[in-house]
Amino acid sequence: MGNKLAIVFLICGMSVTQVFAKEFQDHTQMMAHGEGHLMDMDGAMVMGENTDTLPGGCEKVSATKEITVHAGHKYAEKFPGTMFAFDQQEYHFDPCTKLTVHFINDDEIRHQWMMHGLPKYLYPKGMFHLEVSGPGEVSGTLILPPGDKTYLVHCDIAQHMEKGMKGQLIVGKGSEQLPSIPGVTASIYPDDYSGKPYVPEKMPPSVSSTPSATPIPSDKTVATTNSSDSASALSGLTIIGLAIGFITAPMLANKFKGMSPAEIIAAIFELVSHSLGALIAIFSKLIKQFNSHKSISLPDK
């Protein structure tokens, strides 16, 4: 009787596994929606595909490369404190390389391989995006821009990047190392597995000063003080402006390196539009706060 029950439970368990397990799907028959956007009804998507248009500054395709990227829970086992990961966290390519990415999802849940910071005049939203819901494979192609730059690649599903699914793609010599890339760069907030109790840092005692009587300045003294303050403020702003110029000049030169004049103009307009948008948002917020303090007169009954 016990053996029969065991066989029944085994058959039921195998049936349940077959019902809930999802077969591996190779997503090759996807519908084109324009602007390099492909998708199907089974949960696969490609965004920002570009197979033939050269970015500004690229006279020709420098190389043709293919990579296979695996995504899944098992690849996070070598990184303590993570839940998901790619099988590789860093990629190196020459500028203007035509790159085909074969993205394989080994989990039963949805994963993505997204690349940010691409020129928006060529790649909508400035990104290249591969996505698969459940076990399966999808492929997409892009042409990397010119210049030396480091691009973030990650999964944008909620908390997947924070749990370890991210990497960096280095074009040419790269621009900078991105922080908190598992196994590659140091974490901004490293996890502590020592088991020691947390001891908060002690802040130094504040220095208190006793108020002293000060003489009331005359009008001439106030005018002199105001003019000197204005001059010092002007000189301070000048120094700050020069410092910002010296700091940002190498970054801008690195950013525009290898770009054509049209691409540089497009990048400058994009930067100016973002800055104006941020200033408008700040002024709108200040106006709303100012108006909220005003009293509202009720209509007469």
Jot down its keywords.
alpha+beta; globular; 301 residues; eight-stranded mixed sheet; single chain; 13 strands; 3 helices; Immunoglobulin-like
Give an overview in words:
The protein is an alpha+beta fold and 301 residues long. Among the domains are: 23-171, Cupredoxins -  blue copper proteins (Immunoglobulin-like); 233-292. Helices cover 29% and strands 23% of the residues. The chain contains 3 helices and 13 strands, in the order αβββββββββββββαα. The strands form 2 sheets. It has an 8-stranded mixed beta sheet, with no helix packed on it. Strand 2 and strand 3 (38-39) form a beta hairpin. Mean pLDDT is 80; it is low at 15-19.
Write the layout of secondary structure elements.
Blueprint: H1 2-20, E1 25-26, E2 31-32, E3 38-39, E4 44-47, E5 63-72, E6 85-86, E7 90-93, E8 97-105, E9 110-116, E10 127-133, E11 136-143, E12 149-154, E13 166-171, H2 219-255, H3 261-292
Parallel strand pairs: 1-11, 5-8, 7-13
Antiparallel strand pairs: 2-3, 3-4, 4-10, 5-6, 8-11, 9-10, 9-12, 12-13
Q: Fill in the CATH topology of the domain at 23-171.
A: Immunoglobulin-like
Q: What percentage of amino acids are in beta strands?
A: 15-25%
Q: What is the CATH superfamily classification of the domain at 23-171?
A: Cupredoxins -  blue copper proteins
Quote the average pLDDT.
80
Task: Count all strands and give the number.
Answer: 13
Offer a concise description of the structure.
By secondary structure, this protein is α+β, with helices and mostly antiparallel strands. The chain has helices at residues 2-20, 219-255, 261-292; strands spanning 25-26, 31-32, 38-39, 44-47, 63-72, 85-86, 90-93, 97-105, 110-116, 127-133, 136-143, 149-154, 166-171. An 8-stranded mixed sheet has the order 2-3-4-10-9-12-13-7, with no helix packed on it. It has a 5-stranded mixed sheet with strand order 1-11-8-5-6, with no helix packed on it.
